[in-house]
Amino acid sequence: MTVPAIFAARGSADRLTGLFWRRPRLLLVLLLTPPLLWLGVVYLGSLATLLLQSFYSIDEFSGVVVPEFTLKTYAELLRPANFDVILRTVVMSAAVTLGCAVLSFPIAYFAARYAKGRWKAVFYLGVMLPLWSSYLVKVYAWKLILAKEGIITWAASATHTTAALDALLALPVIGGNSLSTSYLGMFAVFVYVWIPYMILPMQAALERVPTSMIEASADLGATRAQTFRTVILPLALPGVVAGSIFTFSLTMGDYIIPQIVGNSANFIGMAVYQLQGTAGNIPLAAAFAVVPIVIMLIYLGLAKRMGAFDAL
Amino acid sequence: MTAAVEFACVSRHFGPVTAPIKAVDGVDLTIAEGAFFAMLGPSGSGKTTCLRLISGFETPTSGQIRIFGQDVSQTPPHLRNVNTVFQDYALFPHMNVRDNVAYGLMVKGMGRAARYGRADEMLSLVKLDEYGDRKPGQLSGGQRQRVALARALVNEPRVLLLDEPLGALDLKLREAMQDELKALQKRLGITFVFVTHDQHEALSMADSLAVFNDGRIAQIGTPEQIYAQPRTRFVADFVGSSNVLPPAMTAALGGPAKWASLRPESMYLSASGPISGTVTALRYLGSGTRVVLRVGEADVAALVPTGAPVPQIGSASAFAFAPGALHVMEGE
User: What is the Cα–Cα distance from B117 to B120, expressed in whole angstroms?
Assistant: First the structure.
């Protein structure tokens, strides 16, 4: 009995598999077309429309959008009232990013270097669990925690630290009547809500730093602080930058937290929400929406120049 | 002469106290200053843990470690005048070669010009003069190894530790590096302690070596002693390709009823025996042929030099051995 050298195609499925095997590019094109269409048309296309809208202006009398190229809308961003909104948002985003980074590092470092097996599962669950519950519920819960009659005030009086809390609230600008109506409170809620987005990329980056590299640094005479500054941080920087992109842009775009917690001062997200809704000023809303994009691009440019991506 | 490194009944246990994993179990060891010392053993035998105990990445569970007479059992790595060449080299990928080599001087606060000068001297010592501006990622395995060596040596350590330093290199390069390392050690006069699982490497490079097994030292001695007079079956088996003969066979060959080792190259074909059996395998090695003989329950290998007649597989054959070649072992 002879065994055939080549098996005959059993049907159209075999012929199709054969075709894909001979022309791997064809398969690639077929697989990539739907997501690229989505990404190109729906995702980037709408972004381009947004950009275009920001160069239009609104007729002040009729309230109708005038589809003619102008920089008038961008000039409006520089008006003190609008510029304050931008400045406030950027400063808050930067503070939240910094706060997240400082709080995340020890957690991410522990998870990357020491947590094994069960502890790793506990880490992932602990970081992800809050993401599974409703964002609104969490923010309202925080409002209650931070309120004047809330848990923190109660805990402060129970531990006789009311004076410290009052001193904190008496700080100019960031303080206020109570934590829930101050920038401090808003900062705390922002950090709480966005910290998983900082921890996870940071942990991934730290996990890729080989133990032998940290040992080599100590072996060559570096103290722990020197090792951290010259080896761990530069190697983990891409992860820190990735995390900070999340926390920074998420804070810049958020319009819920500033409405619920804080002193009702306007933020970019709230401004966009109001301008496209009640005010009907789509061009100015679009111009506001471009601001975070520009700031992120500048931030990434700076990070690249500082060598944040050299270790990639 | 002072001892460079001393272990006094050092143990390193991992895991729970009730059922510890004894990575290093009561090791006594003295490494003389200026020696090229090898720690040889299979993986998991405790040789790497011993090296990490010297560098300070592990602290002993019990016992004392002294470096030049000073107790360092509780001293952190960065305060020990000891440097390591890591198995994976562990070069910093975000720094160029010069900054890598100068790293140890940088963390000690030496100025840029001075440390770069020293780094360039070291790079020239390992024959990488032109490579200072490259990133480690742009170098070959052999070049990275030299950078790791230069990075350790620039600190003028009193003891240099090498963890399987040649493991990742191909054969040709490995042999060249063996000679180079040996020459470098002679020139610098630094104590080298190096860990390997390759018996040829250990025998050819070291002045003295320790054979590790199960967290203990099976034997310490010069390469000649270890090779010719193995103390236990494990050493005879692991180092070189000696035959290990069971007590009954040793007795039959005129020795005491103890385990013995017999080197294949000391055996020759001889019709009168005393070792006779059936040839079960032949392996041509270039310089000779390894003949495996089935003698009763045991296998005995003999090396027949090229040019001499080689028996056929399946044929009955008999060998004799040079007088004094049969080494009776003290240990099990």
Answer: 5
